[in-house]
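Figure S7 source data.
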Amino acid sequence: MKFSNSVVLVTGANRGYGRAIAREFLNRLDEKSLLLLHSRSGAVPWLQEANDSEKSRCKIEILKGDLSESIKWKELFDAKVSDSSFENAFLISNAGTCGNIEKPLLESGHMLDEMASFWTSNVAQFIPLASVFKKKFSKSKIHIINITSLISKVNVPKLSLYSASRRARNCLLEVIASEDASLRCLNWAPGPMETEMFYYMKETMIKTNTDVEMWQNMQPVKTDVSAKVFVDILAKDEYKSGEYIDLFDVWKQEEQ
Ligand SMILES: NC(=O)c1ccc[n+]([C@@H]2O[C@H](COP(=O)([O-])OP(=O)(O)OC[C@H]3O[C@@H](n4cnc5c(N)ncnc54)[C@H](OP(=O)(O)O)[C@@H]3O)[C@@H](O)[C@H]2O)c1
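Tokens for the predicted NAP complex:
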């Protein structure tokens, strides 16, 4: 399914799952659409490698910003988006980190500065971003998506910060959905995927003798496979706003 006359912003679009989501949208957007690729450094290496026909499918702009710092989102949008009258506007809040997962929380020696940076980039930054996005694209049907994780629903040793931050993100989006019925809000858990974050977690867990069997047996999915299922859900637009959906639940339902 294609998307017409839409603007899509993907945070952390330079690599990992963000890259796969951006590429999936690139294949489905039309010439009236705009793809906004957020990247911390401003570089999006895969875009250089994409061929000309891919790159000419829609307009593409890059938004540079470190999510752990104060970002002037309004100025960024105003500089890159001249006409904001799109039919649909999708904000895909994907970027993030898992934090320091080497030791149990109270043995990790986390300092307040480090904590502040983690919570700013993983949770708090979403609020000014979503707020400015909503104003900027007020003429559009707005879809706000939080890329979350199954780990937001369970307590896993060493992954306390990761789990708590994803749970907080889920909560924020649920509340936003309840505050404004005109918004389409989705918490999407994409499954374990072959990315740097996954391999860092797996190696660290095995190295520190934590849930070794589970991590050794875990079968990550390819980012583009998960991205396709995700973008199909957005295209169908049938989910309940504020809902949490996991990749494996979608696959289970399809089997029934
Ligand atoms: N991989 C999995 O198994 C899995 C499973 C469930 C959910 N998720 C979720 O999926 C999302 C993407 O994860 P991933 O696996 O693709 O991770 P990844 O490969 O480590 O990529 C993380 C992305 O976030 C960006 N990012 C991190 N901190 C940033 C900051 N301060 N400012 C700007 N950008 C920043 C990174 O940019 P740089 O390149 O500049 O660092 C990168 O683009 C995360 O929210 C994660 O929780 C992943």
